[in-house]
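User: Could you check the structure of this?
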Amino acid sequence: MNSKCFFFAIAAILGVLTSLFFYLPFLLCSIIYFYLLYTFKKYSKQQMFIVICLFLTFFLTGHHTITHNKTRLPDSLTTFYLQYTENTKVDGDLLQVIALDIKNKEKLLIRYKIKTEAEKKALKDTNFYGRLCHVTGVLTEASIAKNPNAFNYRKYLAEKQIYKIVELEDHPLNKCTEVKSTPLTMIKEVRFTGIKYLEKNFPSEIAALSAALIFGDRSMFDPEVLINYQKTGIVHLLAISGLHVSLLIGMVFYLGIRIGLTRQFMMNFLLVLLPIYAILTGASPSVIRAVLMIFLVLLVVRWKKQIKLSPIDAISLTLLIYVLFSPLIILDAGFQLSFSVSYAIILSVTNIFPRYQESISAMVVTSIIAQLAALPILLYHFFEISFISIVANLLYIPLFSFVFLPGLYILYFIQIIFGDTPSILINLFMKIITLANALIEKLADLSFAQLVTGRPNILLFIIYMVIILAIFLIWEASFQQKRKIIVIFLAFTLITFQTIWNWANPFGEVTMIDVGQGDSILIHYPFGKGTYLIDTGGTIQFEEDEWKKAAKPFEVGRDVVVPFLKGKGIRKLDKLILTHGDTDHIGGTLALLKEIEVTQILMPSVAELSKSKLTIIQEAKNKGIQVVMVADGSQWENEKSTFYVLSPEANFQGERNSGSIAIMAEIGGLNWFFGGDLDQEGEERIIKKYPDLHIDVLKAGHHGSKTSTSEVFINKIKPAISWISVGEHNRYGHPHSEVLEQLGNTTVYRTDDHGAITYRFYQESGTFSSVLHKIKQ
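Assistant: Sure, the predicted structure tokens are below.
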């Protein structure tokens, strides 16, 4: 096919992108692409006709998909007839499973709150397949992204054609009848049974790794171990990919030939086995890519036709088929990483790899190529990269390829055949896994190896692509001395230009992060002249039985504030200001200190420190962070701005909210007041001491509680704009109607309605915006 499929695949991707995003930019790119093919690749009119037809076909496919990518169910619907289509997921006291509503032909995410520990155990071990169930429940929608660069769960589900969540009222299997299993369902049942067999017959560490490598299921992994794999850039080893599929298919083919089966028979057997294997392993994008590629190659060989299917043609045909049937898959990070890395490695085989014959150098080169290809995608989705990943891959790829993958398959089959596995093998693998996890934990803790750049915008993304392409072209052309210097310069530019861009940014911002029922406010000055965070939010934990606790409970500091900061490219805070000791203001601090460098922590000068504050102080001491107790009269300067602490008085002895740090500062041409949960008594002390205080932007106290933000205080400081940080549908009824009435003459921004709120400024002027774009006057 002379690699024509590669150029066809580009046309197809451009067609889908044109339909999914902005018509004009991608349409212009497509026209330029057609011109380049016709002018420089000398495509004939017939070939150009094929390219344009492919573009239009995929454009229409994408357009049809987004047009119909919405629910058909009315919100009032409460009765559903379900067939469960995926494995259940039980985490704490919550069960989740994907099901098809037979009557309406729509996929739904089913959620059920488990009542007892015994019920949880029974549900975990229950096969949900092969049943038609009549259930009742309430239709809801998934959460949306309410902070910049945050994970949008609703969009994620919509890309999988799931638009609604059903909160069940009763047991999900209460009213069910058995139905005849389809071949697809039968394969999924085998997968479910296999995973449960691992869980019951092996120690948790071996079971988790085996489930990931054999069935593509990572649900049994300890969340902390999984985070360490992600931080070190080797989490791809836990996803079944081309390496795993090739090794398995190679082993099966070799064993078949060794026991006397013909090559023709084995080829036919593999063509049948591959689709089954894809379903057995969870059908992730990396699995489908690898299986479909091998399937196409075997099919061409099986036909014995005079068709030459090169690796680049095979992967391009795979992409065409995959995207044709699932256009939205191009938005999936796994799909993007799998295809970009595979393309880079395949395109490097001819001119780059032959120069590196030694196994270690070849592995290093492979890892570098993979990292270069994945870099823009990793930064877009995860905002950071790990320099340690090349070393980690060198250590762990051989371990997974030659020890874990074949070894765990052997353990699994020994257990199935003999009903028991020799303890010497179990102990051996336990020691290897324990050592591997301990080492990866050490590597993940090397903070200097993490580069946080933030999410690149479209211009930065294009710059990344151009630099990476230039590196590959020079590398492919051979490394002369002058070219080595150019490559070193390009590589240095690649890993520093966005950091320099962030530092040279002339715009500053003040952002109230949506942390639910809590506070967290970022103040970021232009040119890196100062970055402050006022409070960290926090998740209030209630006492509950151990079995109800999720494996990785939601934590605001780790799951909201840290990703927000990293998405902005912020790796260091000059000051972390903890206004007072309530959990919803400082509960996320410890998680933040693990990930973000902090120079100084400010706390209110109070007579008695709470237990949580003492814990933070101890952690700060361990990390060499200066802790300063501030009171009325404290201040610091930032070029044109001075931050004045107006409260509390030194060695304050009153109620905790009343002792909140209150700060006034001039930022971006406006006077701001940040008062934590300062109550009316504290406000009275301030206006008595500072009678001429005038504020443009007020951060309302205590989330709009009627104990703060008094009418006297409002009338005295006369704010034009009010910010309220408040959780959606919170149990306290915040913000109180009385407070909203008092703020009636101001423009009110509130996180429950607007999401994160940002004031972006240049010198002495700026503009307000919010993620959800709803403004209440």
